[in-house]
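tool_call: predict_structure(chain=1)
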Amino acid sequence: MNLADMIEGHVDDRVALISRNRETTYGELRDQVARLRGGLSSAGVGQGDRVAIMCGNNRYFVITYLATIGIGAVAVPLNPASPAHELEDQLATVEPTTVVVGPTAMNSWARVDRSMIPCVERVVIAEGEPDGDVLTIADLLRSDPAPLVDVEPDHLAVLIFTSGTAGRSKAAMLSHGNLASNIEQGSTVTDRTRAGDVVYSVLPMFHIFGLNVALGVSLSVGATVLLVQRFDPATAVQSIVQRQVTVVPGAPPMWIAFSHFDELPPDAFASVRLPLSGASRLAPAVADRMEEKFGLTILEGYGLTEASPVVTNSIESGRRAGSVGRVLGTQEVRLVDDDGNDVPVGDAGEIRIKGPNVFLGYWNDQEATDRVLVDGWLHTGDVGVVDDEGFLYLVDRAKDLIIVSGFNVFPAEVEEVLASHPAVAEAGVLGVPHPHDGEAVKAYVVLADGASADEDQLVEHCLDYMARYKCPSKIVFVDELPRNPAGKLMRRELEGTILA
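tool_result:
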């Protein structure tokens, strides 16, 4: 097998990619990927070698990714906008022999200290003139085509850095079998992405949601992927209308921006049949606004890098407010208490997952691997509740739990209540030390454009929906919340946000 065979078998003249308004058909894509396989092999890249890919969402990323895994090498997608010290740390961690640098990453790469990464034998640039040890993708594409290399399902395909919301980012090892099985698990859903769909792909490809859902699932079924490098709500809607986009996977910040974009006409999303949300919890108030304003029912799912990534979705079941849907495919999911015992239906417990999509572990970090992989079960650290019909509801991350006078407070619950206030665009909540109660609830709030509210008004709003101990004792108004590139809230960085 080889995961890269996802592009095989589709009609030659069907459009596979749209990047910078340039269309690439499946026939052209297969030819380019085969030639780049040949070019990388001729340059000395072999099975097991790590290839760091510093590209935005563009054609260069896609062909490099598919060619890399196609020869049995290991793709390492990196954020092209990361600061130099972060790139140096990640590159030193995975020790790539090759770094591929896209146009948007040239400035970041120029600031990287090459002496920190002596493992790098060759640099490939997507555009520009070669210099010294630098090659170009154009040169490599002149090579003779090379065939796909057959590998075992447990052969390492991708090293992808986790989002880091619960601590230092680690490189998760995902095999060909892991990624392919999650794509296959999604194929059991009736109204899934299919050939003929146009998929709006703004989720970054260095994040697993963008890599194996927006890209992997789409290419495997022969859909067209509209590659978008940066999000702007006005431009996004224009593209969705002009390209008649049918599938829109996104993180909550995208849907928040759309929901507060009052200038949009009611039919702005008329072509969209699958509006998907993941990466973090979507506040029900945001989903309600999208439904009221545009008639768009957002279908929420749950996943994580270590599960390749999708664990549950709502595509087949339909939206149920607050739920992330039902378990996908052949995966097993348990909710357990602190002693590892299954909790009763309706009680909160840590989510644990078993299935062929569960990752191999963390690169060169056996201690961290042993903490999360126990007897084949992935310990997610996420807390959830399941109802009688099998719908999963996320509560929060166990590490983010706030304990006020002995009572548990999950930040996400407070965030959702705050976000339901019409003046609030989004909110972030964390626990802070309190001399008498142990911890207190502190909230950071971004107001909607043109809206106004003060601390007392929002606290009163919370008191209408929650017990007093769950309500914020302090609310700080800020310009924006700290989020990682995939849109996930970084609660541990809230204290450093800029005041509004």
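agent: The domain at 401-496 is CATH 3.30.300.30 (GMP Synthetase; Chain A, domain 3). Proceeding to next step.
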